[in-house]
Amino acid sequence: MGAAGRPVEVVTEDQYKVVIPAGDQSRYQPILALRINGRPLEEMGFSQWMMYPLNDFRELQTADIDAKLAWRVKALVVR
């Protein structure tokens, strides 16, 4: 994201906002997904999606992480 050490606010098309803490960036390396299995998400009826590596970190397998898995992302704001 080019925001090393700084939190990033994710803003969606419906104005939902969530902050990705700087610590999450270094530990989990969340991504803004544009494709799944090489296929553009738009072709499948989806749009950009902020995604964490849920299967790689057991501590992410909670309901709390759902708030950070934003879809229809329109902006990333470095704080």
From TrEMBL:
It comes from the Bacteria. This is Uncharacterized protein.
